[in-house]
Structures are given as structure tokens and as C-alpha cells.
Amino acid sequence: MALLEIENLVVEFATAAGPFRAVDGVSLSVEQREVLAIVGESGSGKSVSMLAVMGLLPWTAKVTADRMVFAGTDLLKLSDADRRKMVGKDMAMIFQEPMASLNPCFTVGFQIEEVLRVHMGMDRAQRRARALELLKQVGIPDPEQRLSSFPHQMSGGQCQRVMIAIAIACNPKLLIADEPTTALDVTIQKQILDLLMRLQAEHGMGLIMITHNMGVVAETADRVIVQYKGRKMEEADVLSLFERPKSNYTKALLSALPENATGDRLPTIADYVAEEAPAGAVQ
Predict the structure, then answer these.
(1) Which strands make up the sheet holding 231-237, listed edge to edge?
(2) How far apart are CA 255 and CA 271, in angstroms?
(3) Cα 269 from Cα 185, distance rounded (Å)
(4) ABC transporter domain: from which residue to which, for each copy (predicted)?
(5) pLDDT in tens, 159-171
(6) Element (H or E) spanning 55, and its range?
(7) In whole angstroms, what is the distance from residue 49 CA to residue 57 CA?
(8) What pLDDT digit, counting tens, does each position of 26-46 carry?
(9) How far apart are CA 12 and CA 15, in angstroms?
(10) Which residues of 244-269 are buried (b: 16+ CB within 10 A; e: fewer)?
(11) Torsion angle (degrees, nearest 10) of CA 44, 50, 51, 55
């Protein structure tokens, strides 16, 4: 049985012009120890899909699905209180923009320890020891000192490592990484990806990698889902996707890579998908 199974997920937001469907009939699954990449341009519904799974969308969002099961638990029937107990413990998410995701008013140590207090029931000494262990595990230099640091006293790469430490604090079964290398320079991006893959292998987690970077997909994923305008356009193992893409949108993403340039300009998405509507998605 898959670790996470979703069938026909739909997410709608109320707008002045009427309901806006941000996610339209997406189905996916991820196995334990598997890395699933969800790729597509900004606005394709990647993050919204996973925020719906985590139960972190605003109350104004309407979320429906035929099936949404995590580790044998039906998320559609779960109460808000039980969902809160699960999120951060059994399933965790690394959000975009680490500098904005960490609370600037509290130290790094406090924010890691708070997760352990809420979900693991550890006493103060246990929380401190575990927080120190986590900072060492994610490669933060001078971890003892950094426990007392505030987010603004750390670099973007260090803040991202702290976010990862918070996400893995309770040894989750599923980790969702939402654009984990956004706004980081190339060398730090490589370090963060290597760290995520090492932790995923060590802890045996299922990992969902949300990205628009096809290079990240090639380097990390076992299987790939391509989204466009809220719909799933294609799903394949990573090798098949790069060698034999089926949808025009996938071909557009691959052709936009600089190494695939064939003329004086890179092709645009419009060059490929002008006649391909989401309704013709490859399932």
C-alpha cells in the first residue's frame, strides 16, 4: 500500500469573479523511500496540492477528493484536532522562503524545541539535546551557539537547514519539500539537495519534491508528475520523462533548458502548448 494516495483532488478558491479552480482533478501516490517530483511553472497548483494534503489552506478554500489516504488514515474523515497531531509529526513540509517561514521573534532553538514539545512530549533537557543533535545533523556550524540565534542572524542557507531540522525533528514518514532551493546560490542549492537526499535515505521517508527546476528533477526524483494550470499533464519515471516526454508541455519544459537550445533563442511555453489544453492531459 502506498504511503500517500490521492484521487481526483480539486481545490477551489472564492474570488470576486466566482470560484477559481487552482487544482483540477489531480491524482498521485508516493511510496515509502520513494522520491516523487511535482514539476511545473509557477501557478500550476503544485504547492496548493500539497498544502491541501497538509490541511494548511485557508478556510475559504474548498477541498474535495475521491480519496486521500496517508499511512492507512483517511484524511478526508480526520478531525481538525487529529490532523494537527499528524502534521509536523508524521508528515512535515519545508516551505518556500525560509527567512519568511521562521518566526523572527523567537530563537532557532525555541522553534525546534516547540515541535518536540507539542508532538513528542519531551522535557526541557530532552528537547535541548534533540535540537542540538538536529542542528548537527543538518550541518549547521557552531550548533550550540546557533540554538540562541535569531533567524535574521543567519544566512538564507542556514535558515533553510533550520527549516529542514524542524521538519525532520519527529522523524516523519512523509516529507514535502516546496522549492527548497529557491533564492539560494548555486553552491548552497547543491548542498541543500544533497542534505535532503541523505536524510531521506537515512530515515526511509517518502519525499515529495515540488520544483520548477528540471535539473533538480533529474538529480533527485524516482518518479515525476508534470502539472499545468492545475491539471496533471503527465506522469512517468524520471528516465522515461526525459527521454520520451509525452505531453507538449513537458517537451516545452525540457526544451527551455539552456543545454537544449537549438537556435538564438530558447523556445517559450507558448511555442509548444498553444494548441494543448489541460483537458488533453496525459494520465
Answers:
(1) 91-94, 174-178, 206-211, 35-39, 223-228, 231-237
(2) 10
(3) 25
(4) 4-254
(5) 999 999 999 999 9
(6) none
(7) 10
(8) 999 999 999 999 999 888 999
(9) 9
(10) ebbbbbbbbbbbbeeeeeeeeeebee
(11) 140
